[in-house]
């Protein structure tokens, strides 16, 4: 049974809270305080490019974001051209010089195709059922952890 909302769990809690609130704030050791202030002053004098991204000027942040998007798009286009265009044929000729690499690539391709065929052969109901079972197991895990946490932190009688 849970205690009423306005009653403390521990009868000593109001006393301990009052005593702790009445304590004066403690000062940090002088050596630590001086090191912290020196580090803060050093970081304040750093140029913008050596500071966190949040401290960069807004136009430079926007330019960086645009440049990153351009590089990512170029990478995606480059990879797709590599696997579809003349570079693919060059890579195939290059791989043919190394029979082990070519055989490994053929084996990986065959394995991938077999796996894809098996995946397509599985009825969708099995996939949905497996996902539902996985979700139920995850929910059960969360429930067990929550129950264990509440049991561990329950007030001692």
Instruction: Return Rg in Å.
Output: 31 Å
The parts where pLDDT drops under 50 for at least 5 residues are none
Mean residue pLDDT: 83
Content-based structural category:
mainly alpha
Major sheet size, sense and barrel closure: none
Please report the number of helical segments. Answer: 6
Instruction: Write down the secondary-structure element order.
Output: HHHHHH
| Count of structural domains | 3
Helix content: over 70%
Number of strands: 0
Distance between the termini: 12 Å
> What's the shape?
flat
Proportion of β residues?
under 5%
What's the short story on this structure?
This protein is mainly alpha-helical.
Could you explain how this protein is built, in words?
- This protein is mainly alpha-helical and 157 residues long.
- It folds into three domains: 26-53; 57-121, no CATH class; 123-157.
- The chain is 73% helix and 0% strand.
- The longest helix has 29 residues, at 124-152.
- 0% of the residues are buried.
- The model has no long low-confidence stretch (mean pLDDT 83).
């Amino acid at each position: 049974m849970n205690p009423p909302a306005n009653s403390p769990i521990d009868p000593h809690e109001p006393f301990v809270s009052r005593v702790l609130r009445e304590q004066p704030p403690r000062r940090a050791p002088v050596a630590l305080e001086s090191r912290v202030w020196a580090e803060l002053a050093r970081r304040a004098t750093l140029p913008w490019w050596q500071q966190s991204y949040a401290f960069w000027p807004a136009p430079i942040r926007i330019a960086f974001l645009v440049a990153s998007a351009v590089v990512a798009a170029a990478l995606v286009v480059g990879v797709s051209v590599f696997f579809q265009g003349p570079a693919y044929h060059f890579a195939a000729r290059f791989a043919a010089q190394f029979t082990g690499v070519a055989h490994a690539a053929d084996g990986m391709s065959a394995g991938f195709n077999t796996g894809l065929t098996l995946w397509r052969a599985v009825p969708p109901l099995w996939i949905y059922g497996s996902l539902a079972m996985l979700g139920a197991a995850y929910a059960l895990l969360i429930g067990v952890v929550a129950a264990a946490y509440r049991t561990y932190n329950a007030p001692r009688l």
